[in-house]
Design a protein that fits this description.
The complex is a heterodimer. Chain A has helices at about 15, 20-40, 45-50, 55-60, 65-90, 115-140, 145-150. The longest helix of chain A has 28 residues, at about 65-90. The radius of gyration of chain A is 21 Å and the shape is elongated. By secondary structure, chain A is mostly helical. The mean pLDDT of chain B is about 90. By secondary structure, chain B is mostly helical. The radius of gyration of chain B is 17 Å and the shape is elongated. Chain B has one domain: 3 helical TM bundles of succinate and fumarate reductases, CATH 1.20.1300. Classes of the chains: A mainly alpha, B mainly alpha. At the A-B interface, helix 2, helix 3, helix 4, helix 5 and helix 6 of A face helix 1, helix 3, helix 4 and helix 5 of B.
Chain lengths: ~150, ~120
C-alpha cells in the first residue's frame, strides 16, 4: 500500500456549512467561539511578559475596543461552556440516552430525548439572559481593583 | 495517543475549568470578604485575572489557566486537522501542537506567577 491518504476529512470550512441543522449550527458556533477565545486569550501572557506588568493589558481592556472584545469573549465563553457541557452530557449518555439495540427495527443511535430538548432550551435561555448581563457588567461594572479589594 | 484518550483529555480539562472557576472565585470572595452585591456588579475580567494576580492568587489561577491552554490547544489541533487530509502532515501538526502547549503553558504560568500587576 502506498502513502495515499484514506482520511475523509480535510475539507475545512466547507464542511461546516455542508448541511445545516440545529446540531450542526451549534457545532459551528462552538468552533467559532473557541477560535475567538483562543485568539483573544493566547497572546495575552506574551504581551504581559513583553511589557513587564499586567497593567498594560488592564489599560487596553478599559478602552472601548478592549471592552468590545472583552464582551465578545465573555458572551462566547458562556455559550462555549454551556454547549460544551451539553456535548459532554450527550457523549456520556446522560441527556440523550445510550443507543438501543433492537433485534428487528433499526433505532437511530442519535435519537433525541425530551431531556435533551429541555437542555437545549435551558442553554439558549441562560446564554441570552447571562450574555446580556455579562455584557452589561463588562461595560458598566466595577473596573478598579481598589474598589473591589480595598487592602492587599 | 489514541483519539479516544485525546477526547477524554478535552472532557476532563473542560470539567476542571467548569468546576474550578466557581471554586476559585468562591474561595477568593470568602477570603477577601467581598460582598456578593459588589461581586455581582464587578467586571468579570477585573476579577480574572487582574484581582487574582493583585492578591497573589496567581499560582492558584495557574491550575485553571494551564487547563485552559491544554483545552484550547487541543481545540486548535482539531481545527487544523479539518484542513489536512494527509496522515504525515497530521503527525507533524501533532508534534507542533505539543511544542505549542509546552511554550504557551510555560508563558501562561510565568506571567501569572512572576509578572506583577
Amino acid at each position: 500500500m502506498g502513502e495515499k491518504s484514506t482520511l475523509k476529512s480535510g475539507r475545512g470550512f466547507g464542511e461546516w456549512f455542508r448541511t445545516l441543522n440545529r446540531e450542526r449550527v451549534l457545532a459551528m458556533l462552538h468552533k467559532i467561539t473557541g477560535i475567538y477565545m483562543v485568539l483573544w486569550l493566547f497572546p495575552r501572557p506574551w504581551i504581559v511578559i513583553a511589557s513587564g506588568h499586567w497593567s498594560t493589558l488592564l489599560v487596553f481592556d478599559s478602552t472601548p475596543i478592549g471592552k468590545a472584545l472583552a464582551i465578545l469573549f465573555v458572551v462566547f465563553f458562556l455559550f462555549h461552556g454551556l454547549n460544551g457541557l451539553r456535548i459532554v452530557l450527550i457523549e456520556l449518555g446522560i441527556i440523550s440516552g445510550r443507543p438501543i439495540r433492537h433485534p428487528i427495527n433499526p433505532v437511530p443511535a442519535l435519537r433525541e430525548s425530551r431531556t435533551h430538548k429541555w437542555a437545549i432550551l435551558l442553554i439558549i435561555t441562560i446564554a441570552i439572559i447571562g450574555g446580556i448581563y455579562a455584557a452589561y457588567i463588562t461595560i458598566f461594572g466595577i473596573a478598579q481593583i481598589s474598589q473591589l479589594i480595598p487592602t492587599r | 495517543m489514541r483519539e479516544s484518550v485525546v477526547r477524554w483529555v478535552v472532557h476532563i480539562t473542560a470539567l476542571i475549568m467548569a468546576i474550578g472557576i466557581p471554586i476559585v472565585i468562591g474561595a477568593f470572595v470568602v477570603a477577601h470578604r467581598i460582598p456578593l452585591m459588589k461581586l455581582a456588579f464587578t467586571n468579570p475580567l477585573l476579577l480574572i485575572p487582574y484581582a487574582l494576580v493583585y492578591a497573589g492568587w496567581g499560582e492558584i489561577w495557574d491550575i485553571i489557566a494551564a487547563n485552559w491552554v491544554l483545552h484550547g490547544s487541543i481545540g486548535i489541533r482539531r481545527f487544523t486537522n479539518e484542513f489536512i487530509n494527509n496522515k504525515k502532515l497530521r503527525r507533524i501538526v501533532n508534534i507542533l501542537i505539543i511544542i505549542f502547549i509546552l511554550i504557551e503553558g510555560l508563558a501562561m504560568v510565568y506571567s501569572l506567577i512572576a509578572v506583577p500587576l
